[in-house]
Amino acid sequence: MKVIGIVGMPASGKGEVSRIARDLGIPVVVMGDAIRERVKKAGLPPTDANLGAMSGKLRSELGMDAIARITIPVIEATTAPVVLVDGIRGDYEVAAFRERFPEFTLIGIVSSFETRYARLANRGRSDDSLTAEELRARDERELGWGLGRALAQADYTVVNEGTLEEFVAEVRALLCRPAAGGRE
Ligand SMILES: Nc1ncnc2c1ncn2[C@@H]1O[C@H](COP(=O)(O)OP(=O)(O)OP(=O)(O)O)[C@@H](O)[C@H]1O
Question: How many helices (H) and strands (E) would you count in the chain?
Fold first, then answer.
């Protein structure tokens, strides 16, 4: 089973990569869904603060690779030859996936703070109404989980500073490359 991981700062374009993969027929497992599910079960609204607190709780109880370990059986259950996993936040998670899936490939998505902040303003998800300070705080929280170290371990890096069309073309080409875990 080939597993492709996506890592990037908040609003760098990871969700767009998932959409492109689905269009190519590659199933996508979103690590954040495990957190959203648990926040919902706890009867809490899916705010940035609640999602962050639940992630922190799982990591402190089960270890820094907790969400990866919760996600591995979900990936395996797809029984697909290629699966994309969205939501990697730390180097411990990368290590867990690399250990379980020898053909694991990590793709890093990179966008500047200004670009990410401008795109968030247009997205309108329930946890998106952020000031620049709040986005900085979200960045800091995720960097604290080892996001920078995970990005540094990427096998491929895509800079997402241009148009969506340019990004889509670059990601499609990458996902179709056999060396990147692609389908051909
Ligand atoms: N190149 C681009 N041009 C214009 N808009 C873009 C581009 N890339 C992504 N976007 C938009 O920016 C927003 C953030 O992207 P996306 O949701 O994919 O980020 P993310 O990394 O999944 O974010 P998060 O970490 O918060 O889940 C989305 O509305 C997306 O459609």
Answer: 9, 5
What CA–CA distances, in Å, run from 174 to 13, 67, 91, 100, 154? 15, 26, 22, 23, 13
Mean pLDDT for the chain overall:
91
Ligand 1 atom nearest residue 160's Cα: 1
The two structure tokens encoding residue 41 = 């079960």
Can you say which residues are annotated as belonging to the binding site for ATP?
Answer: 8-15
- Residue 34: count other Cβ atoms within 10 Å of its Cβ: 19
pLDDT above 80 (res 162): yes
How confident is residue 83, by pLDDT bands cut at 50, 70 and 90? very high
Q: Which two tokens stand for residue 150?
A: 């995970």
pTM, full prediction: 0.89
Q: List pocket residues of ligand 1, CB cut-off 6 Å.
A: 8, 10-16, 119, 122-123, 160, 162-164, 167
Q: Which tokens is 111 given?
A: 């966008």
pLDDT of residue 184: 45
Q: Is the ipTM of this complex over 0.90?
A: yes
Determine the 3-state secondary structure of 103 from DSSP.
coil
Instruction: Please state the atom number of ligand 1 nearest to the C-alpha of residue 123.
Output: 29
Nearest CA to ligand 1 atom 15: 13
| Residue-range domains of the chain with CATH | 2-180 (3.40.50.300)
- 14, 136, 131, 51 alpha-carbon torsion, rounded to 10°: 60
